[in-house]
Each structure stands twice: as structure tokens, then as C-alpha cells.
Design goal:
alpha+beta, about 625 residues, 15 helices, Gyrase A, domain 2, Multidrug efflux transporter AcrB transmembrane fold
């Protein structure tokens, strides 16, 4: 029979509408302005007593607190007025030490029952809600020093393989200096090293009873190291931002040694700063034997027990750069650990080092580059001076039971949070050089709240006019089209919320265009039905023919638009991608509502009934 849907189609439509309504509901709950207080390392406990002190300080300053809550690694204080955020942050920042980060936040207020269903609102872009802006500076001197340290380790291994004796190595600026017992050893070493390391200029130095070889990086080599450092840092930061789940971020180079990072729609700016700015890396080293010369060893303390120390070899087996994947888990005693997979080269090096050292201890050395700021007086003015420093500590020291390969695990971590962040940093890649925060600020909506409100109002007025036109032009069928239009908007918002898409002003433009195209599909169908009625068809046949014959035109038009949207998404950046995402999703949802939902309503109203006249 014409114009009758089977039961499963009605059930499918109802399920889609119910899911769309459910997952679009979180967008009705506005976010609360808040202040986030957390540890820079994620392992410092902020207890109730400190929370009480923060609350009293804010209350004394006349700042109204909406609610407060403690989290796994910090405290979240919700405020009633967004204008109080900056003042509240400054008050709390004066009360804490350098190991605590105080950041602005917009905290979700979604009910718990919706959160239990993994329902969350759309995140808004910088132009609608604002976000966080970081200006980072890459330490180029450290990049050169790190490259020299790697080269020094490789040179020492080469000299040992050729049984050429050396005493120690020193690094100063761009120069690596090695001391030898006599000139014969030095000349043999120079001849050997020069073939394998062409990026140096070599100079013989005479010293009392011995001889020395100075190796200085060429200007071209230094430029290549610096370019690699900033490009690698760009890649790593983009990977870290993707791990954070931030949609439509901006990570780009600014000048010779700076990087701009803008994160729209982040929910925890403190965690974002901690992950983006972290310069953690790992080194795997063997523990030194008692008879190892002091020039080939270094002593380090343990991170969780500074009184305990161990002496390690200077030579590094592999670093975090060789990690291909990392994940957090728990060992048989319930303690946090990180499972690591190495790439092919790293696995080969690890296997070579461990198969000949079974029964010997191997350490995992955690390296983190930080910076501290102190105020000095220059020319009678207070000036903040940034002092970079590096922290090195042993995470674990375990005996090699058998030859290791590409997969193994790291234990000895302090907390699950530390394990999660370490695995994230290893997955996204280590930084080629340390980075420091030069500037950090919270950005408000670039167009101003008044302009945003006016834009939303114009969209509402436009939709109202479309609704009135459809009612006047198509009467009962206009009601069907308007219901489908509302359902289309609800489903589109739900899909974007489920995918975690970020809504920007260009994205709103894509939504408006989508709604217009959805109405356009209904117009094609309804006009086709009118033509069939004028041609003498019966009501039921005209309805059936109208939907069937307009189908190909609607599909063709939407597919071409979808192809354009996909091209925009693939080659565009930032706002262009935001427009393309909403347009692509909107095309798919409009096809569903225009073809299936309106057809279902028409079938329920007219299908299988003796209708002599249509109000269309």
C-alpha cells in the first residue's frame, strides 16, 4: 500500500529523535565561571584546610562563591559572577607556592545523570567563549647542548670499540672537547671521528702532559639543529593538544624561536598548561660498576626518595624519542605503571644492551626542564628574570632478568595521575628542546558578548521568517517541514556534542546554511507533489511520486555540497574547518529529517486513508 512505513522505520526515527534530544540537553546548562587550583606535577594533594583558606580569602574580598569541589589533583571553585574570575585567581595565586598552578576555568554544570550517559555540551571556540593563549619560547642553546651530548655518547662508544683511550669530555657552548693521554691517541681518534661526524670543525689542543681535541659545530649544523628543534616541538605540541581532545586549536610558529598555542573550549586550563609546557623525557641507563672511571659515571637521586642515590653510566641506551606507544595500567600490587613499546631502532638498542648485561641493574631516569622566575632590581626598576633549570631523578632501578625487546614496563611512579601524564607525553613525543612560557593569558570573545547576542538574534529572526513562510505557503505540510527543521537542529547539536566538535562563528554560519538547505529539500518535495496533483494524480499517488521523483535531485544537490565541505575540511584550517564540520554534519542530518521524518509524519497523517484534497 502506498505511503505506509513498516513498524521498524517508525521505531528507528523515534530512537534517533530520542537520542538526539538526550545528547543535546547538556547545551541547555550554561558553564560556571571558576578558578582551578592544581599541582604542576599532578601529585600534590590540596586538602580541605587549604580549600577553606581560599574560600575565606575570596569571601573577605567580596567575591561570591557558587560552589567548591575537590578533585583528584586539585580544587575547583565555582563563582557566581564571571567578572570576579581574574581577581579570584590573583588572590589565590598570592597564597600558594610555585608548585601550584592557579588558572581560570569554565566548569560544566551538566547534571550527573546526563554525565553518566557520556552526554556533554559543545565546546565553544575562541571567538564565542574565549580560551587560553600561550606564547612559548624554545631554548635553542639547550637544543645545541642536547645534540652535543648525544654526539659525545656516540663518540665515546666508537672510541671504546676501537680501543682508543680517552679521559673525559667537556661541552662548552658549541664545542665538545675530549682529553687524551697522548698525541697518538688524539690523532687516531680525530681521523676516526672526522669520517663519521662531518658537522664539526676540528682543532688540536696541547695540554701539559696530554693532548686534547676540540670539535666545534659549524654554523650550518647549528641552523639545522635549531630548525629541527622548533619543527619537532611544533609536531609534539600538536600531538599533545590532540591528546587533550581540543578541537580546532592553533599551534603555529612565531618568529625564529617562538610558538603560539591557542586552545579554545578547554575545560581545565591548568591541566592544559601542565601538559603543553611539560618537557619531560626518559633515559634508560645501566648502573655503573664499582671499577668504572668517574669520568664515565654520574650520580642521581631517586624522585620519590632524594636521600637515596645511584651511580649511572653516562652513556644512554635509549631515550623517550624511541617510544612508539605508551599506556597507563596497574601492576599486580595495584601500583601505577606505564607500559612502553619501542620502535625498531630502540628495540634493537635495548636488546643489544640488556642481553650482555643480564643480572646488572638498569635505571629509568626522568628528566624535566623547568624555569623559575625571580625579581631583580635593574636601574631602579623591578625586573623579572627567568632562570631555566633541569631536574633529573631516577624513577626505577631494576635488575635485568633477561634480554629486553620492544615492550616492557616502568614502575615506581607516585600516582595514577603521574602515570597517565607520563604515558601521554611519551605517546605524543618528547620535545627536541625545552620550552618556556613567555606569555599566558585568557582570551575573551573576540567580537564581544553584545555582538554575539545580536548574531544569535539575527539567526532566530531568520528562522522565524522561514517557519512563517512554510506555514503560509504549504499549510499542513509546512507544519511537517517546521517540525523536521526543529528536529534537524536538535540532532545536529547532539551529533556535534557527541563528537566533541568546537562551535565557532563560522560554524554557526554552517548551521544556518544547513537549516536553509533542509527547508530547500522540503520545498522541492512539496512543489513536486503540487505538480503531480495538477497533472491529475490521486492524492496518495501524488504524495508517493513527489517524494520518489524529488529524491534524486535532493541527493545530487547535497552530495555536491558535501564534497565541497570535505574539501574545505581537508585543506582549510581554524574557522574554515569549523564551517566545514557543521556543514558536513548538517547535510547528513537534513537528509534524514527531510526525507524520512517528514515522510513518516505524512504517512501517519494521510497514508492508507481516503483523502480527496491536500492542504498544500
Amino acid at each position: 500500500m502506498l505511503n505506509r512505513y513498516p513498524l521498524w522505520k517508525y521505531l528507528l526515527i523515534l530512537i534517533v529523535l530520542a537520542v538526539g534530544l538526550l545528547y543535546s540537553l547538556p547545551n541547555l546548562y550554561p558553564e560556571d565561571p571558576a578558578v582551578q587550583i592544581s599541582s604542576t606535577r599532578g601529585d600534590v594533594t590540596l586538602d580541605e584546610s587549604r580549600l577553606k583558606r581560599f574560600q575565606n580569602a575570596l569571601t573577605d574580598a567580596g567575591i561570591e562563591i557558587k560552589a567548591s569541589e575537590t578533585r583528584e589533583n586539585g580544587i575547583l571553585i565555582r563563582l557566581t559572577n564571571a567578572d570576579d574570575q581574574i581577581e579570584a585567581r590573583d588572590i589565590i595565586a598570592d597564597m600558594v607556592s610555585e608548585d601550584v598552578v592557579v588558572a581560570l576555568n569554565l566548569a560544566e554544570s551538566t547534571p550527573a545523570w546526563l554525565e553518566s550517559l557520556a552526554a556533554s555540551p559543545m565546546t565553544l571556540g575562541l571567538d564565542l567563549r574565549g580560551g587560553v593563549h600561550f606564547l612559548l619560547e624554545v631554548d635553542m642553546d639547550a637544543a645545541v647542548t642536547q645534540r652535543l651530548e648525544v654526539n659525545a655518547s656516540a663518540i665515546r662508544e666508537t672510541l671504546r670499540d676501537e680501543r682508543i683511550r680517552y679521559r673525559n669530555t667537556d661541552i662548552d657552548d658549541r664545542t665538545l672537547t675530549m682529553d687524551f693521554t697522548n698525541e697518538e691517541d688524539r690523532d687516531a681518534a680525530r681521523q676516526l671521528i672526522a669520517r663519521q661526524f662531518p658537522d664539526f670543525t676540528y682543532q688540536n689542543l696541547d695540554e701539559g702532559r696530554g693532548a686534547a681535541l676540540a670539535m666545534t659545530l659549524t654554523d650550518q649544523a647549528v641552523n639545522e639543529i635549531e630548525d629541527y628543534a622548533i619543527n619537532q616541538n611544533l609536531t609534539t605540541l600538536r600531538n599533545r593538544v590532540n591528546e587533550l581532545g581540543v578541537a580546532e586549536p592553533l599551534v603555529q610558529r612565531q618568529g625564529p624561536n617562538r610558538i603560539v598555542v591557542e586552545l579554545p573550549g578547554v575545560q581545565d586550563t591548568a591541566a592544559a598548561k601542565r601538559v603543553v609546557g611539560a618537557t619531560a623525557n626518559l633515559e634508560f641507563r645501566l648502573e655503573a660498576r664499582p671499577d668504572t672511571p668517574d669520568s664515565e659515571t654520574e650520580e642521581f637521586s631517586f624522585r620519590n626518595n632524594e636521600a637515596r642515590t645511584a651511580t649511572l653510566m653516562r652513556d644512554v641506551i635509549v631515550t623517550g624519542d624511541s617510544v612508539s606507544s605508551a599506556s597507563r595500567s596497574f601492576d599486580e600490587n595495584g601500583r601505577p605503571q606505564v607500559n612502553i613499546d619501542l620502535d625498531g631502532t630502540g628495540g634493537t638498542l635495548m636488546n643489544r644492551a640488556t642481553r650482555t648485561n643480564i643480572g646488572r641493574n638498569m635505571a629509568v631516569l626522568f628528566i624535566e626542564h623547568n624555569t623559575r622566575t625571580r625579581t631583580v632590581i635593574e636601574d631602579g626598576k623591578e625586573v623579572e628574570v627567568r632562570e631555566p633549570y633541569t631536574e633529573r631523578g631516577i624513577i626505577s632501578l631494576a635488575t635485568i632478568q633477561s634480554a629486553l625487546g620492544n615492550s616492557f614496563r616502568i614502575t615506581g611512579l607516585d600516582s595514577p595521575t603521574e602515570a597517565a601524564e607520563l604515558s601521554l607525553l611519551l605517546r605524543s613525543g618528547s620535545l627536541a628542546a625545552p620550552i618556556y612560557f613567555v606569555q599566558e593569558r585568557t582570551i575573551g570573545p573576540s567580537l564581544g558578548q553584545d555582538n554575539i547576542d545580536r548574531g544569535i538574534m539575527s539567526v532566530q529572526i531568520g528562522l522565524l521568517l522561514v517557519v512563517l513562510f512554510m506555514l503560509v505557503r504549504y499549510r499542513v505540510f509546512g507544519i511537517f517541514a517546521n517540525v523536521a527543521l526543529a528536529a534537524n537542529l536538535v540532532i545536529l547539536i547532539a551529533v556535534m556534542s557527541m563528537l566533541g566538535a568546537t562551535l565557532t562563528l563560522p560554524g554557526i554560519a554552517g548551521i544556518v546554511l544547513t537549516l536553509g538547505m533542509a527547508v530547500d529539500a522540503n520545498v522541492l518535495i512539496f512543489e513536486r507533489i503540487r505538480e503531480e496533483l495538477r497533472g491529475g494524480m490521486s492524492v496518495q499517488q501524488a504524495i508517493h511520486a513527489g517524494y520518489e521523483r524529488a529524491f534524486s535531485s535532493i541527493i545530487d544537490a547535497n552530495i555536491t555540497t558535501l564534497l565541497v565541505a570535505l574539501i574545505l575540511f581537508s585543506i582549510g584550517t581554524g574557522p574554515v574547518k569549523g564551517f566545514a564540520v557543521t556543514l558536513s554534519l548538517g547535510i547528513l542530518t537534513s537528509l534524514f529529517t527531510a526525507l524520512m521524518l517528514t515522510r513518516a509524519m505524512v504517512n501517519l497523517t494521510y497514508g492508507g486513508k481516503p483523502v480527496k484534497k491536500l492542504w498544500i
